[in-house]
Structures are given as C-alpha cells and as structure tokens.
User: Fold this.
Amino acid sequence: MHAQFLQLAVDLAAENVKSGKGGPYGAVIVRNGQIIASSGNCVTSSLDPTAHAEVAAIRLACEKLHDFQLTDCILYTSCEPCPMCLGAIYWARLERVFFACNRHDAAAAGFDDSFIYDEILLSPPNRKIPMQHLGLENAQLPFQLWAQQEAKTLY
Amino acid sequence: MHAQFLQLAVDLAAENVKSGKGGPYGAVIVRNGQIIASSGNCVTSSLDPTAHAEVAAIRLACEKLHDFQLTDCILYTSCEPCPMCLGAIYWARLERVFFACNRHDAAAAGFDDSFIYDEILLSPPNRKIPMQHLGLENAQLPFQLWAQQEAKTLY
Assistant:
C-alpha cells in the first residue's frame, strides 16, 4: 500500500518534468487510505521558491481539510524532503513520511538539498548566506505580548 | 540602517499578535534600501502551516518582482529563521539575513524551532515524525528525465 502511493508520487515527479511544470519532484498526501492532495514542484511555473512538491501538497491538503495541521496524514514524496520541506512537515504535524530518492540523488541531479543540510550545521554568521544577530532593546516584546494574549490560536 | 529595518520586523511581529492575525513573528525584505515586501506570521489566519513571516514575505517579494529568486535582497526577521524558513531563504537565494531573537527565545515562547533543529540531526527513521526510505525500481526516472530535458528552467 505504501509502495503504491509512493509510486504515484514518483509518477507525478516524472510527469512534472515532461509537462515543463517544474522540477523532478512529486508528493502525495493520504489520510485513511484516501488521497487528500498531490502536487508536483511548481517553483518556476508559479514563481514561488517555496513551491516544492511537499510544501505545495501540504498547502493544498490544509485548504481541503480547512485546518493548519495534518496530524493523521501520511506524506509520500519522490525524494527525501529538503530542510524547508522537513520543517513544513513538522509544522503541519504529519504522522509519517515515505520517500523514494535521497538528498544525495538530488545533489547528483544539481539540487541544493544536501548543501542546505550542511549549511544548517554552521553557526549563522558563517553560512554562505550570512545570518547575523542584531540586538534590539524590545526584541522580546512580540513574545511577551504573545504570552499575555489570552484569546490566541496556538499552532 | 540594518537596525531600523529589523525594528520594523519586530514592530510587525508585535502588531501581528495584537491584531490576532497569527504568531509573534514579522519579516521585511529590502532591496537597495527599499522595502519590497513584509509580512507577519499568518499560519492560523490563512490555515497554512507554511505561512511563517519569512516564507510569506518571500512569496510576496517574488510576486512583486516576478521572479523566483531574490538574489540582491536582504531579509530582516524578528526571530532566527526556523529550518523551514532557513531552507526557503536558500532556495530564494537571498543575499543575507538579520534577526533579533533566536531559536531559544522561540522555544521559551512555546514554539518548535529548536526542536526541529535537533530533529534534523537524527537519521530519518529515528525522528519523532518517522521518515522512511522505500526502494522503488524507477525512483530515479524523474531525475533521468530532468537530465535529458533540454528546455528546462533551472532553479
């Protein structure tokens, strides 16, 4: 069963290249054995660098289920999620993930997945895209307001 | 100059909590000293778990610039990017990033940023959300088609 849904994700990835819609990636989200959403990578066709197959499928599934969490859903993806998609999977609280290729296959095909995994381990200022902490007096104010806010939706 | 734009991101984060739009985060994207896009976190109001302030601002900036890369742009964010946003920053190829709070401040406020950074270091099957490799005979086909495709947009 898992292999069948994963095969659909790989088929979607192949179709995505043939149609020129985007990169060689596909993702399928399933709940209780039913497909809730699926997508290919559409970074270049939608001019959205975050529109990886997994992120796009998560957005579609949330739209369909009218929820910002997918706690009882399984994600099938043609390739190991990159750090962005991995983060999205945690924030969406998916149940589990199956993948067909890995980050090194993606690197061999010219994609930065493995590079970004390596960059995460560096301290922020030492990354290829430098990330610098700047102290501001009231930097904690948003968190303080959040703690005080009673009518808030946790996520 | 950097501190001023970063202050705007923090102000946006505070305003985001007060208005009930979402979590205590804000981001501003600047090119040549001009603000291109800005956003608060809108996960709960847009029912999109990927709508962190940074991701939302990146998507808006790309829309505005009609591009899927932001190579000459600087991102100012009220808090150190989580792994999802960090990945998005690399895929959008921003020039650099400034942040006010860090992942431990976010953790103290009840957010999973630091937890997800820790999870990345584990092997996929050992994560809290298990990620399992399943071998498929034609798993590499999408990458092979991509290599053969001549008229493709790289990203």
